[in-house]
Design a protein that fits this description.
The structure holds 2 protein chains of 2 kinds.
Chain A lengths: L9 E5 L4 H12 L3 E6 L7 E2 L2 E4 L2 H8 L3 E4 L3 H13 L4 E4 L6 H12 L4 E3 L5 E4 L3 E4 L8 E8 L2 H13 L4 E6 L10 H10 L5 E7 L4 H11 L6 E6 L12 H5 L6 H10 L3 E2 L6 H10 L3
Parallel strand pairs in A: 1-2, 1-5, 2-4, 5-6, 6-7, 10-11, 10-12, 12-13, 13-14
Antiparallel strand pairs in A: 3-4, 8-9, 8-11
Chain B lengths: L1 E2 L1 H10 L8 E3 L2 H11 L4 E5 L10 E2 L8 E4 L2 H11 L3 E3 L8 E2 L3 E5 L5 E10 L4 E7 L6 H7 L5 E4 L8 H10 L4 H20 L2 E11 L5 E3 L3 E4 L8 H6 L7 H9 L2 E4 L4 E5 L2 H13 L6 E4 L6 H13 L5 E8 L5 H14 L5 E8 L2 H11 L3 E3 L3 H13 L12 H12 L3
Helix pairs in contact in B: 2-3, 5-6, 8-10, 10-11, 11-12, 11-14
Classes of the chains: A alpha/beta, B alpha+beta.
Chain lengths: 293, 422
Amino acid sequence: MSILVDSATRVIFQGITGRQGSFHAERALATGTRVVAGVRMGKGGTSHLGIPVFDRIDDAVSETGATASVIFVPPANAADAIEEAINAGIGLVVCVTERIPILDMVRVRSQLKSSNTVLVGPNTPGIAVPGQCTLGIMPQGIFLAGRVGIVSRSSTLTYEAVEQTTRNGLGQSTCVGIGADPVFGLSFVDCIERFNADPQTDGIILIGEVGGSSEETAAAYLADIEDSKPVVAYIAGQSVPVGRRIGHAGTIMHYGTGTAESKMNALACAGATIVRSPVQIGEQMASLIDNGL
Amino acid sequence: MYLFEYQAKDLMRQWGIPVLPGSVAITGVQAREIAQELGCGPWAVKAQIYAGGRAQGSFSDAPRSGGIRFSDSLDDVQYAAASMLGATLVTPQTGAAGQCVSAVYIEPQVKTQGELFVALLVDGESGEIVCLATTRGGESIEEQVRYAPESLIKTLLGSGSGIAEKVGVRIGSALGLEQASCTIFADILQRMHQLFVTHDLSLIEINPLGIQENGRLIALDGRMAVDNNALFRQPKMASLGSRAETDAMEESASRYGFNYIRLDGNVGTFSSGAGLAMATLDAVVDLGGKPANFLDVPPVLEASRVKQAFLLALTDSRVRCLLLNIFGAGIMRCDTIADGLLLAHLEKPITVDVVARLAGTNAQLAISRLERSGLPIHFSPDLASAAKMAVELAATPDRPKSRGAITGQIGRWFNTLGHRGR
């Protein structure tokens, strides 16, 4: 088992004919992902990489029974693409696009509230279930099907955690990049909840970074639930100096959150095991699982 | 992208938010003329930088002189302006390097009965625009809110294109404003919100919003930031912009789209992806090493741009060892990084130790290209061993370095590229 997607997930690529969309659709197909349709206005009725292309996502859904979509659409139109996917009733939308205007995401978030769609991202490397399904841009050749669930805000640190858990033989059940933008969909909490319910997952790696309050929210959730699988947490940016800032609003918005220390403290108090260096992520997870914690 | 106070006030004026008359000057004489036009003093002379905390700040060459000065005479206005211009102002928000003052803003000094703080920004958690307001405005606001968090009123404003008047009235009365002031506050809030959504701002902050004797409100300062991701559809805002960088190397980095921050150590770092770049620093620090910089090179297709990033990292004479940590994925491929390193070497021979950890897309290709180049690069299979080696090499006393020339077939290829002026 896995979370969010599996080998049966039928996937649409929005923006399949673009350079990025095309490149990653081809790789997804090569790793066994069931890519069933592409969407590109003006290219409806054609096919790309042997996949039928539709003008509109509704038609792609009704023709192919797709349940998930990946978005490779330029930033100016990406929010519209997400909304089209929501309106077409897609259950899972992964938005790889980065640099989407924040107020566009504010609009998308309000649409998500009245829908059943789960949005992953934006600015995410996507989701990977080793050997079954790749939605996004995660590199090939580093995964090993296994026991650890990985959830991360940073793309590159997702791969770092994957490599370490492949190297020590634990392997991954599902890897999720929740994205590095301030306004986003699926959260750490949503992923922890799903990993705890997933029989294949034996431990959870949570990778956060300075800024925002998602890690503190995850800590509050972990402290709240009765029981959780072991969580190893690493927060990137402990050694980065506090940047220049303008005004006071950002600071007083969430007092006592946002720094690496506040996040590590909150997670440690909630029972997570904190590693201070990114190189310790894999071995720490292994020792927790070996000790049956 | 940040705006200066004078730019923010121009915008507020256009949008009907009450501000004092005032104007910007770039010389002492000009400041005097503006003050004269504004009428009899006293006047406020305000250094224009992309940061707050100006009154608490000080100039590096004249400690105890803040970035906001009140003057009673035209001579004093001119003197204050001239002494600020060209000087570097350090405030709690600028970082130790401070920011150079290239303009001052002159406006009348006014008396207020109270100072409010009001700001709009996007709250990531709720995904909505949020209003922050408190009666404890002024420069000590952060301490005020820390000790009396209940004094801060947070109101989610939803995701619509406008807000109702009653929202502002409710916040105003929660702040304890008189009824007349509440109505004015509500009007200001609606205008701030309009300005925020129309111009894709990520922050608008008025601190202080002064309460005058007659109950009127007036914006005495203004901070605005524009969402960089929306500049493509905000040509007017983009034209106002420049960036806040003051460090020459940081400025050159931003021109090429790199995120570079100068730090105090001697281990140079080079990564792609903000998360991995931060993690690289954390790994070095955890081993007792001291990073010389943070460098995040965004995924690019051209080796010539990667070359610029290497030249930037290697220009720093404090760097004893360069730690290269790359996880190729998406359009960031390891071979592009390797090519960039070799191009940089052609332009300026590398004389420091380089430790490379290359993983992900095309890692093997990159390693074999670098190995065949003959450059003395230490390869590490993972971040743990790479960071350890880099920290050790940086701590080793000076020794003669071989100036590795690029040799072999790859070398010839690169030399051809070099001669083409790439």
